[in-house]
Amino acid sequence: MTTPEQSPTVALRLDAPPRVASLGVGVHGTGAATEVFRLPDLWQLHLYGYCAELTVDSAVYAIRPGRVSLVPPGAEVRFRYRGRSEHLYAHFALPGSGPAGQAIDVPLMQDAGAEAPALGTLLHRAVVVAPRNPARAAAELWTALWRIAELGLPGGPATPPDPVAAAMAHVEAHLADPLTVPRLARVAGVSHNHLTRLFRARTGTTVVGYVRERRMARARHLLRESTLSVTAVAAAVGIADLQAFNKACRRAFGHSPRALRTASGAVRAPAGGQRNPVPR
Predict the structure, then answer these.
(1) CB atoms within 10 A of CB 212
(2) pLDDT band (50, 70, 90) for residue 273
């Protein structure tokens, strides 16, 4: 019998929302102990809450509570139930319109672990809203598929915490605050020196360099796309001193904040017809 760790992978294309054909709570095993069928054009997603056996083509998998399976179109499935068996299911098509490199290899059967309740919530929500809001149901299913695809990835929900990912997430959420390497190391749960080594290996830059890049990326977006004053933009990215912000913009972009905004044509009159002042 194939274990989740030995499960072959299927290639998911999640660059666009799925087209949902059917969602629901399937109740099986009350009339017949075995069911055999194929869906020629549709994927099958099942989130299990019982013990049984699944055969996909020639591979046999043990069904256990908390496991999730993704069966590609055209595959023959055989379920062997042990009495009444209830699972959440989705039958759907994937557009697959993006480049081939965007396909994600996902185990056909895997243990969702601590993610199982969250997946159940997403799929239950999709089932409930599907009759009156198919687009919302597709969005819920799309989110569930992304979470399933990330179960076994580094930094995914079923893997141990990743110090670099934790530090990066903190940076994104706290760009307006003081961000020091010791503070980020505490958030990541590692030493100052270890985080520095991990960052260099993962990103090719230092922690300080990464923070600077993210601040300047946010500043460029706000200067080009919003009518926030330069003072407000500087504060939003944690550089309250305007002279320091001006120097940082010149170093990163070769322009002052005002020149960057003017060149992009981003200064637009707000709804009241008056322009926000743009300090030099």
Answers:
(1) 18
(2) very low
